[in-house]
Structure formats: C-alpha cells, structure tokens
Amino acid sequence: MTLAVTDLSVTGRLRDVTVALPRGGITAICGPNGAGKSTLISVLAGLLAPDGGEVSLGDLPLADLTPRARAQRIGYLPQSAEIAWDVSVRNLVALGRLPHRDRGEDAIAHAIAACSLEDFAMRPVSTLSGGEKARALLARVLAGKPEWILADEPLAALDLAHQLAMLRVLRTEADAGRGVVLVLHDLALAMNHADLVLVLDEGHLVADAEPLQALDRAVVNRVWGIDAEWTGEPGHRALVISG
Ligand SMILES: Nc1ncnc2c1ncn2[C@@H]1O[C@H](COP(=O)(O)OP(=O)(O)OP(=O)(O)O)[C@@H](O)[C@H]1O
C-alpha cells in the first residue's frame, strides 16, 4: 500500500509534486534549507492540508481517515518536537499507544530496547541530553507500530554511533514491511541507507530515484551549488567536495 501525493501544491512552499512512496523500504527526502522537505512530510503525515492536489494512502484519500485511524497508521516525528510534560521516558514512549487505546506493554518495551533507552526509562525527560531525547521521541513513534514512520531530521542530534544504530532500527522496521520516510540533510546517509531518494529544490521535486541516480554529481551541483563526487563502495560512499 503506497503513500502518494498527486499534483500537490502548498502555496509558496511546494509546487506540483507527484510521487508514490513504497512500503518496505527507506525513502530519504533531501534538499537545501527552505526547499519544502518539512512541508512535504507534514502533508504526508496528514497534518498540513495542501492547497491543491491529493494525498492518498492506498485507495483512500488521506483526508477521509479519522485523526485516530490516521495516527494508528502513520507515526510522525517533527523536526523539533517539544515535550509538553516532564514525564518519565517510559511514559513518554507509552504515549505512542494513545491512538490504539491499549496498554501495549510489549510494543513499549520493544521500542525502549530498540532505542537503547533501558537505562533512562524512569528518568524525567527534562534530564535527558538532546540526543537521548531524540531517541526517546523516536521510541514513542515506534511504540505505536504504525505502517508508516515519517521523521523530520531524526538523526540530526545523534552522535555517529547512535545515528547508525537508529538507521539499523529503521531498516528493521522497513524490512518488517513498514514505510520509513526520513528528511535527511546528510547526503551520505541518504546515499548509503535509503532505497529511494527524493530531492526537492525551491518547492519542486527534481529527483525521485535510487540514491546513486537521485544524488548524482549533476543534481548535487545544480541543487546545492557544490561540485562534488562520490567515492567508495555501495553502502560506504562518501561525498568528496572538489570545488
Ligand atoms: N507556516 C508557514 N507559512 C509560510 N511559509 C512557510 C511556513 N513554513 C515554512 N514556510 C516556508 O516554506 C518554505 C519551505 O519550508 P520547509 O520548512 O518545508 O523547508 P525545509 O526544506 O524543511 O527547510 P530546512 O532544511 O531549513 O528545515 C520555506 O521558504 C519556508 O520559509
């Protein structure tokens, strides 16, 4: 079942974007600051109504789902998620079960373990570092076991080891048949870990392909204004800037 947008427009932010995202893989959304990445992922999450075009989940317009049904199927992690109450990490993660209205003990325990939060489980979230908080917020999304995990820069606050650990977690979710959609600024992470890369530039979708094609030298040069080339083997590529 795909999550798709057709002729999507958000005035001043996105123009005529059409793309279908597959489940069972990781899609990276890349582009410079202000390109429309957060706007697109908010629309895909059903949190921002477009000014034109359609958003669909399988055969259904996304807007036809009740907020609860949508929240059961789509987990969304915003770019700078604020935590309103100073609850424990465990209770924060448990909030991921709200759309299901169940206790979901197994799902909560699994999410806490997947994000290596066992040692923090009883700590108030206000005492966590930025990276620890980012992992707790991702665990809240995982606890809901949504079909789709949409995350806006979920790795930005993480150290390299935790970035790779989170990517392994997200790959496991994708292998289990979920759709994983990540806004990523780090082009090497997109190149090495995504199955599909979307490149946005000034609100236009300029590439929608497997990483090597979507992030080829000409695209990187045109969109980011950087002359660079990829070196290394598949899965371990690095972007070397030449000018
Ligand atoms: N609520 C809003 N109202 C009007 N314009 C907005 C609003 N939110 C964002 N914009 C504008 O829409 C454009 C796209 O913003 P968006 O946040 O989607 O970009 P982005 O690609 O996620 O950027 P970044 O990499 O800086 O996070 C930007 O020019 C931004 O200034």
From TrEMBL:
Q: What InterPro entries does UniProt report for this protein, alphabetically?
A: AAA+_ATPase (IPR003593), ABC_transporter-like_ATP-bd (IPR003439), ABC_transporter-like_CS (IPR017871), P-loop_NTPase (IPR027417)
Q: What highest taxon heads this organism's lineage?
A: Bacteria
GO molecular function terms listed in the Swiss-Prot or TrEMBL record: ATP binding; ATP hydrolysis activity
Q: Which SUPFAM superfamilies match?
A: P-loop containing nucleoside triphosphate hydrolases
- Give residue ranges for domain ABC transporter: 3-227
Keywords of the record, alphabetical order, are: ATP-binding, Nucleotide-binding, Translocase, Transport
What is this protein's function? Answer: Part of the ABC transporter complex HmuTUV involved in hemin import. Responsible for energy coupling to the transport system.
Record PANTHER family: HEMIN IMPORT ATP-BINDING PROTEIN HMUV
Q: What name does UniProt use for this protein?
A: ABC transporter ATP-binding protein
Organism from which the protein derives? Aurantiacibacter aquimixticola
